[in-house]
Amino acid sequence: MKDKGKLVIWPVYIDKTRSRSNGRIISRKSSVSEPTLQEIGLAAQKLGMAPEIEADKAYPKSWWESKGRVLIDNTAPKTALARKIASTIKDMRSGQTK
């Protein structure tokens, strides 16, 4: 299996505009508005998570929207990694670098 040792991060997981029942896995306070695949990939790369972007994939709950997904190294719980990625995206959007 290609995904072995990897976690899937769908943009929905960290999207402030989505509800928990629609797929968001972190708090609204921690999440960002409409994250893009490129932002998630860049944030994961900055955090050393070896991201793989798959743009042609669709989140199963909203299968008609092909927004893609990012595969990252499975080094910690998914919610913790999602929070780190969202935090890094916030920093990138505000112009700060770490």
Helix and strand topology:
Layout: E1 6-9, H1 37-46, E2 52-54, E3 69-73, H2 78-93
Antiparallel strand pairs: 1-3, 2-3
Helix pairs in contact: 1-2
Mean pLDDT: 90
Multimer state: single chain
By DSSP, the count of extended strands is 3
Given the C-alpha coordinates, what overall shape results? globular
What is the gyration radius calculated from CA atoms?
A: 12 Å
Pattern of helices and strands: EHEEH
Number of helices: 2
Measured as a percent range, the helix fraction is: 25-40%
Largest sheet: 3 strands, antiparallel
> Numbering strands along the chain, what is their spatial order in the largest sheet?
1-3-2
Low-confidence stretches: none
Percent of residues in beta strands: 5-15%
Terminal CA distance reads: 34 Å
Secondary-structure class: alpha+beta
Protein model, in words:
With 98 residues, the chain is of the alpha+beta class. The chain contains two helices and three strands. It has helices at residues 37-46, 78-93; strands spanning 6-9, 52-54, 69-73. Strands 1-3-2 form a three-stranded antiparallel sheet, covered by helices on one side. α1 packs across α2 (78-93). The longest helix has 16 residues, at 78-93. It is globular.
Q: What's a concise summary of this model?
A:
The chain has 98 residues and is of the alpha+beta class. It has helices at residues 37-46, 78-93; strands spanning 6-9, 52-54, 69-73.
